[in-house]
Amino acid sequence: MIVPITAADIPTLPLAADSRFTPDTLARHLARYPHLAFRLAGGPDYALGSCWHRRPEIGLLLEVASQEQRPALVERLLAAYRQAGARLVVLSDSEAERALDFYRQLGFSVLEEVIPYEQPHCRVEPLSPRLALRPLATDDLPALVALEEQAFPWLWWETAESFWEAAQRPDCWVYTAWLGGELVGYLILARRNDLGHINRIAVHPRWQGRGYGAELLTYAIGDLARHGARRVGLNTQSNNTRSQRLYERFAFQCTGERYGVYGLWLEEGNTLSP
């Protein structure tokens, strides 16, 4: 029998060796997503889910620690997503690595193909700045979400909550870019050890084609270097050739890897649109 995981289960739940969770982080996860955590009664098998970019319409299938019971646990989690009104469920990278053949048989397919790029030296020629960049403030969030929904496809939208969470992380920096009183673009940057990463870079479509993307990229590389990065990476969709040309101008090189974002539509007829 499959039952919900409760806080009382945490001390005895044997987390997988490669789990992303510790008992403390699992307790916080359960407090937020009590309806997306299940285990096999009396056994070690479990399944955990959340929401993609804090968006309840897109589930994120995080971690399933099971072999024989994986089908039943995943079906229970999918049923919970349907009950909560989700349109789509996406696999975490780690779960795709664990059991991709299984999920393909279940109907998961590639929604987007992603290409990683890296610049090995974290250097850039300075540009004369036209934009005013400042750290994200709470008052910026409505305009930032509106820009986000113009600049990116539906699958990739961030939310006010996910923006603010990123801004609170000690290893992450969120900047908004302004021209006069108008929000033109934004950056989300992160660093781990000597690797800087441009998590997001965006210019509102109305302001594209004027060199502001290059200006933001210049600032991003310089800021990551100031924070101790010696190389910098980023990801982009395989069909985003415009961005790829920009990155290659700045000496970014494709790492040779590609990976798919796998998802399962919970209702027939859905597409990657609002």
Q: Give the amount of beta strand, in percent.
A: 25-35%
Q: In DSSP terms, counting alpha (H) and pi (I) runs of 4 or more, how many helices?
A: 7
Task: Examine the secondary-structure arrangement and name the CATH architecture of the largest domain.
Answer: 3-Layer(aba) Sandwich
**Major beta sheet summary:** 13 strands, mixed
Q: Structural class, from helix and strand content?
A: alpha+beta
Q: What share of the residues lie within helices?
A: 25-40%
Give the assembly state of these chains.
single chain
Q: Mean pLDDT, nearest integer?
A: 95
Write up what this structure looks like.
The protein is of the alpha+beta class and 274 residues long. The protein folds into two domains: 2-107, Aminopeptidase; 117-259, 3-Layer(aba) Sandwich (Aminopeptidase), CATH 3.40.630.30. The chain is built from seven helices and 13 strands. Strands 1, 2, 3, 4, 5, 6, 7, 8, 9, 10, 11, 12 and 13 form a 13-stranded mixed sheet that branches. The mean pLDDT is 95.
Concise synopsis of the structure shown:
The chain has seven helices and 13 strands.
Primary descriptors:
13-stranded mixed sheet; single chain; Aminopeptidase; 274 residues; elongated; 7 helices
Helices and strands, with pairings:
Elements: E1 2-4, H1 23-32, E2 37-40, E3 46-52, E4 55-65, H2 70-84, E5 88-91, H3 93-106, E6 109-119, E7 132-135, H4 141-151, H5 160-168, E8 172-179, E9 182-192, E10 195-203, H6 212-226, E11 231-237, H7 241-249, E12 253-254, E13 259-265
Parallel strand pairs: 4-5, 10-11
Antiparallel strand pairs: 1-2, 2-3, 3-4, 5-13, 6-11, 6-12, 6-13, 7-8, 8-9, 9-10
